[in-house]
Design goal:
Blueprint (H helix, E strand, L loop, with lengths): L2 H6 L1 H7 L22 H4 L2 H14 L6 E3 L15 E2 L21 E3 L11 E6 L5 E2 L8 E5 L7 H16 L4 E3 L6 H4 L3 E2 L2 H4 L19 H11 L3 E6 L1 H16 L5 E6 L15 H20 L4 E7 L6 H10 L4 E3 L13 H12 L1 E7 L4 H8 L16 H16 L5 E5 L12 H19 L5 E6 L2 E6 H5 L10 H10 L7 H21 L1
Parallel strand pairs: 1-4, 6-7, 6-9, 9-10, 10-15, 11-13, 11-14, 12-13
Antiparallel strand pairs: 2-5, 3-4, 4-16, 7-8, 15-16
Helix pairs in contact: 5-15, 8-9, 10-11, 11-17
Bound molecules: adenosine-5'-triphosphate, 6-O-phosphono-beta-D-fructofuranose and magnesium ion (MG).
Family: Belongs to the phosphofructokinase type A (PFKA) family. PPi-dependent PFK group II subfamily. Atypical ATP-dependent clade 'X' sub-subfamily.
Catalytic activity: beta-D-fructose 6-phosphate + ATP = beta-D-fructose 1,6-bisphosphate + ADP + H(+)
EC number: 2.7.1.11
Length: about 525
């Protein structure tokens, strides 16, 4: 089956399939532009909406299958030739029963559904395709890493290089040094399997990284000047936003350049994907800090341990580290407001735990309670080079507040042990399972780019790797949902206060229930 007809003639494809596997194209978000075969319509969001509306009105009641597809090079280069995938002849894949992913294979965003509920949103399954849109000897790929560090970046770099070379015979691979600005301010570095052979054993990024410095035009000029035709971009939400702009500019200029994003974030704040690489490694490393705090406070009278962990707007590291440890009495995250004084407050809880156990450990995510810290220190907003707000030190603030309260108000001597492992949880190599995860991400990205997809991010959705439109992962930040079971599990595990009065809790639940009902009936 011709890939281009699959990608762009989705209505004709749907007619060839049994009803249960029809791909219908009512896209709720404005990212699935790939179904529009006319390049002049391609960049007009208004036109896209108009077409979607007309498609929507043609849908019958059972037509509730949504594919949020990723762009393809033939969208704006309709005459691009394709070639048989060299994997067909590869030693590794020749024994694989089903070497190529079928164009009809999709991954469901929601897998817990009700019997009669709509089939919902799906993404294209990642993996090698029967046809590729690049001749191996004509590929000139580049890799760039941006934003903060994360365990596993080097593994992703290594596996992109080795994957391109071993699976597709690509030999021309460039490393862009020092993040986005490296495109226009530095020389490139030649990457071969030999050069990257051992880098997965080291933390950090072999290519180095930076914040700020994204200049789309300069970057794409540089891509054009250097004859680069595959761009692999490893980075967090900011980086992926930058990748989307690079894709849009390359498409606007009609360049045969595949832009692939590989999501990286220690905070696990990237939407849609199950989890970001390096997260498990960081949670594991955080156990060492929690354990140290616990050992310290257990050994003294009225020991209060505080461990501050990363997590700017999302408390996933703190939540998972707490759940894994079982030595944590209270976990504070940005998503869950808390208060110190009065009934149900943190001070009351500390007093109670000290009476019961003689010690306690608190884990606090760096973004938790920022508004209280700001009110106390009267700080002005400061930003990093990428425009991210620089956070105030809530760990020191919390330690001081607790010490003050217990010495001055309660007239009680407490033994405070404050541990801030900061970069130690992310400046390490990835563990075994993250290494495997990184390999899958890298290979998925390589297969996707070779197959001519562009403007996509790779990642697991319900455990299956998928190609996701970049804008889909940047439109919102993944945060801990207080109404989800995981936070409930944490509260059950620590038995800490929820910091929500029961009246408020009931009112919130009612609102959520109402919203759920509205969603169900309006679909
Ligand atoms: N909206 C945006 N448009 C274009 N480029 C952006 C945008 N936001 C950030 N960038 C660029 O992406 C790069 C990384 O961004 P940022 O420092 O926010 O890290 P990140 O990718 O979000 O990773 P982390 O998870 O470590 O925060 C920087 O070079 C920055 O200039
Ligand atoms: O000091 P840097 O490198 O800007 O990184 C710190 C930030 O990076 C993150 O780890 C996200 O990558 C945040 O949790 C943290 O606030
Ligand atoms: Mg970010």
């Amino acid at each position: 089956m011709d890939l281009s007809s699959v990608t762009f003639s989705c209505y004709s494809l749907s007619k060839t399939l049994p009803p249960f596997s029809r791909l219908l194209f009512l896209q709720p978000s404005p990212h699935s532009t790939t179904f529009l075969p006319n390049p002049s319509l391609f960049f007009s969001r208004q036109n896209i909406r108009a077409i979607k509306a007309s498609q929507a009105s043609n849908l019958s009641k059972n037509d509730d299958f949504v594919l949020e597809d990723v762009p393809h090079l033939v969208n704006f280069l309709p005459n691009l030739p394709s070639f048989p995938n060299p994997l067909q002849k590869s030693q590794a894949y020749s024994i694989v029963k089903k070497t190529f992913v079928s164009p009809e294979d999709v991954v469901a965003q929601n897998i817990v559904i009700k019997k009669y509920s709509p089939r919902g949103v799906h993404f294209r399954r990642a993996g090698p395709r029967e046809k590729v849109y690049f001749k191996s000897e004509e590929v000139r790929a580049c890799i760039v890493t941006c934003g903060g560090l994360c365990p596993g970046i080097n593994t992703v770099i290594r596996e992109i290089v080795c994957g391109l070379n071993y699976m597709y015979g690509v030999e021309d691979i460039l490393g862009i040094e020092g993040g986005y600005r490296g495109f226009y301010s530095k020389n490139t570095m030649r990457l071969t399997p030999k050069v990257v052979n051992d880098i997965h054993k080291r933390g950090g990024t072999f290519l180095r990284t930076s914040r700020g410095g994204h200049d789309t035009h300069k970057i794409v000029d540089n891509i054009e000047d250097r004859g680069i035709n595959q761009v692999y971009i490893i980075g967090g939400d900011g980086t992926q936003r930058g990748a989307e702009l690079i894709y849009e500019e390359t498409a606007k200029r009609g360049l045969q350049v595949a832009v692939a994003g590989i999501p990286k974030t220690i905070d696990n704040d990237i939407a849609v994907i199950d989890k970001s690489f390096g997260f498990d490694t960081a949670v594991e490393e955080a156990q060492r800090a929690i354990n140290a705090a616990h050992v310290e406070v257990e050994s003294v009278e009225n020991g209060v341990g505080i461990v501050k962990l990363m997590g700017r707007y999302s408390g996933f590291i703190a939540m998972y580290a707490t759940l894994a440890s079982r030595d944590v009495d209270c976990c504070l995250i940005p998503e869950s407001p808390f208060y110190l004084e009065g009934k149900g407050g943190l001070f009351e809880f500390i007093e109670q735990r000290l009476k019961e156990n003689g010690h306690l450990v608190i884990v606090v995510a760096e973004g938790a309670g920022q508004e209280y810290v700001a009110a106390d220190v009267h700080a002005t907003d400061k930003k990093d080079a990428s425009g991210n707000k620089l956070l105030l030190d809530n760990g020191i603030w919390l330690s001081d507040k607790i010490k003050d309260h217990f010495t001055k108000v309660q007239k009680m001597v407490i033994n405070m042990k404050y541990i801030d492992p900061t970069y130690m949880i992310r400046a390490i190599p990835s563990n075994a399972s993250d290494n495997i995860y990184c390999t899958l991400l890298a290979h998925s990205a390589v297969h996707g780019a070779m197959a001519g997809y562009t403007g996509f991010t790779v990642g697991p959705v319900n455990s299956r790797h998928a190609y996701i439109p970049i804008a889909r992962v940047t439109e919102r930040t993944n945060t801990v949902k207080l109404t989800d079971r995981m936070w409930g599990r944490l509260l059950a595990s620590t038995n800490q206060p929820s910091f929500i009065s029961s009246d408020q809790e009931k009112a919130d639940k009612d609102i959520i229930q109402d919203l759920n009902n509205i969603n169900i009936t309006s679909i």
